[in-house]
Amino acid sequence: MSEGKKSDIHGDLPAAASRQGMADHKELAIFAFQRTRMPIVVADARKSDYPMVLANDAFLELTGYPAEELLGRNCRMLQGEATSPTAIAEIRAIISHEREGTVEILNYRKDGSAFWNQLHLSPIRDDDGSLAYYFASQIDVTEYRKIQTLEEAEHRLLLEVDHRTKNVLAIVDSIVRLSRSDDAAVYAASVQQRVQALSRTHMLLAENGWQQASLRDIVTLQVGVFSEHNVEIDGPEVMVPAPSVQPIGLAIHELAANAAVHGSLSRGNGRLAIGWRREGEGLVLEWHEKGGNKFGAASVKGFGTVLLGAVLENQLGGRIMRDWREDGLLLVVELPSLDRIGRSLQSKV
């Protein structure tokens, strides 16, 4: 290899070459440029709009354009409606500072189809150090992006499943611990019924994309298991955040089950009125039984009463007030902000 040989454009000479290779390096460089599988284009930096002056076969295949439609035009022709202005600004900054840089940008083929382009820009200077050309290589990272997006979605899903599972298991644990019965069969049945109630709200959440559920749907779903008649449900539209749906659903189930065994739903002439209203950020729910056992739904200090306190008061931070009347029970539940409850429960799981 001869010493001190210069080229018209810096970087034109290979780092290592045989004597014959040095003699043929221009022809070999053109051959390599044309035959490489990486899409490559060269733009003339000495002209105002940086027109493309060279494009290899891989670039033509990637973009779908023939050479005559590309050469002499700026690469911005590959940009489209959804191309990020930020990515375009990054490219402009690289070129204006005459430096190397890599940018991922959404480009479009001639047929209009989009692809994610990992664009690497590199300046080529002449002997006096002036910018002469910009070399640009492309890598189609569309499939990689799809895989990356899928992996991120799967990761979020796994985190969400983990959270949901912990939330459900915490409630199931409460059900098992708080159930009391000397009879194994009665104990097993009571646990099964509560887990089924939990399952109903779980399905309701799934149908609503795990975001929230209507309080009316929660109440109707749990009460409807015991009676579709003599029940009046009335209240404004209230959306319950996902973390609060299952605790509230389980509490409604307990009230309905107790009403069906001891209260208004245990008698043919009994009636149950369920209503709610907003008070500031909070919620007030009224459960009014008429025509049942005069001692009302909370007469039995068993699992149902204990669970109501555990769920509505301890877990949701609410307050339960009971008024045993001659005609039945009026139970009032005051809950603070449902949104704050949801965030608090989520942080604990």
UniProtKB/TrEMBL annotation:
**Which principal EC class is assigned to this enzyme?**
transferase
| UniProt keyword Phosphoprotein present | yes
Gene Ontology molecular function terms on file: ATP binding; photoreceptor activity; protein histidine kinase activity
**Residue ranges of the PAC domain?**
99-153
Which branch of life, at top level?
Answer: Bacteria
User: What EC number(s) has UniProt assigned to this enzyme?
Assistant: 2.7.13.3
Q: Does the entry feature the keyword Ribonucleoprotein, yes or no? A: no
- Pfam families per UniProt: HWE_HK, PAS_9
Sorted keywords for this record are:
ATP-binding, Chromophore, Flavoprotein, FMN, Kinase, Nucleotide-binding, Phosphoprotein, Photoreceptor protein, Receptor, Repeat, Sensory transduction, Transferase, Virulence
> Which SMART domains does the record match to this protein?
HWE_HK (SM00911), PAC (SM00086)
Q: Which residues form the PAS domain?
A: 39-74
Designated name of the protein = Blue-light-activated histidine kinase
Q: Do you know which InterPro entries this protein is assigned to?
A: HATPase_C_sf, PAC, PAS, PAS-assoc_C, PAS-like_dom_sf, Sig_transdc_His_kinase_HWE
